[in-house]
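Loading example: each entry is read as two labelled lines plus one structure line.
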Amino acid sequence: MKLRRLRDADRPRIQLRLEGAALEAQAGDTLLTALLAGGAGYLRSSEFGDGPRAGFCLMGACQDCWVVVEGLGRVRACATLAEAGMKVKRG
Amino acid sequence: MKIAVVGAGPAGVRAVETLVAAGHRPVWIDEAPDGGGRIYQRPPPPLGRNAKTLYGFEAQRATALHDTLDAMKPHADWRPDTLVWHVRPGAKRLQTLHRGAQGAVEYDAVLLCTGAMDRVVPVPGWTLPGVTTMGAAQISLKTQGCGIGSRVAFLGSGPLLWLVAYQYAKAGADVVAVLDTTSFATKARAAPGLLRGGATFAKGLYYIGWLRAHGVRIAEGVTPLAIAGDATSGVTGLSWRDAAGRQAQVDCDAIGIGWGLRPEAQLADLAGIPFRFDDTQHNWVPERDIAGRTAVAGHYLAGDGAGIGGAEVAELAGTRAALALLQDAGAAVDIALAARLDRKLAAAWRFRVALERASPYPVHLAAGLPDDAILCRCEGLRVGELRAAAAEDYPAGRAPEMNRAKSFTRTGMGRCQGRVCGAAAAEILAAALGRPVTDIGRLRGQPPVKPIPIAAPAAEAVP
């Protein structure tokens, strides 16, 4: 899944790390946007063996966008703002 | 008097405005970092906040609501970023979680304005990356400036289908198909009632007309077949059967799906408020009178969390429920205003009936899902596993209602607590049992209403 930036697409850039690799995002991105617009493709793998997931409701209800941020623990990617320097692992 | 308002969407804002005007300072809680609700959610800075771009026809209404929201914050005990995860009606206490810290809010009266989320029907392949709810597609565009993909299809029914497709096309997205599962005939039958809705109906027609005029592929009365794709690429296409029974498909990398909304009524449930099945909406809704009073003293409801009425109705209902609360507390309120609101709300509900008739929940799609389709996204449960629990020869004995089926199969026991699969699961079980959906009950709300850390520490001070 790759989000397409349609509006306000030239905001200040911020750098994150996903599984150790550099990932560029924009200030004001949620983690979900940062990762899925930045080419991560998916956010987590289903614990039940039915494949990758990339969120679903984007309003904090479905719990299908969990990722792990160093220092914060498990968060919903849709409800967490991306910040420069965040170290993220897929959930 | 200690008053708490849960939710700062259209209903919550108008409720707090009314309470503040009467001299109260309510505790005002929202799970999001800011108010506005989902419909008038504002993008985080540095994204632009041009109301016309973000909210279209509703720009004025959104701006007015934001102005009141911001004006009320200093007059309330405003607690954003705070999840209410339990209500204890006997103790009149809300259990909260704010940035990892537990808290509690005691109240004499509480007004629950907890909003709604998308109502969906699973489609084979719907867990692939690239499939989101219709609301998610809208939130992504509105608050993040992003489309959910580059070639986007929309599938579902109801006003949001056309609105979101229009918003995407206007924003420059490539909308490859808009597929309505409701037939033209069903909508045509509802048209006379819809005319009462005036502007709302006209806006709907405008979006559909605009999409047609811009050559967007549109089909009505479709039956979705499958979402194609794989683990690496995510979504690659969508296939369906058209109204004439022919198979069709489109290549796409993202799909927004949704069939109207369902109330987020878990807190009302925990508060002990009785529920009824609303035939028109085809949702279980907490019972309340037109003013928002419930059978549990001191507990009031307003907005979509008390039955789907939309943002305009939510504003009226928020004001009205706050007036009811004040009245019950013995305050002198503007009786003429209350009566006027009652009339407006009654008229709005009449229009709502027509709207629901024009886009009924597609029971047949849910009941007709193949056994191997994933039903529960949380735990990868398949439709056949739920159906099996309805069979005469099920080892644990046939599950006669939803909560038994839940304990047998874990349907609705995952971390979303059945918010996503619950509506479809009920139809699947009802069809398998050969009974009306109203007979098989509903998934009961359980605390915590959303996952919370097991080791969440207590907040240092509980007021």
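Residues 362 and 380 of chain B are 22 Å apart (CA to CA).
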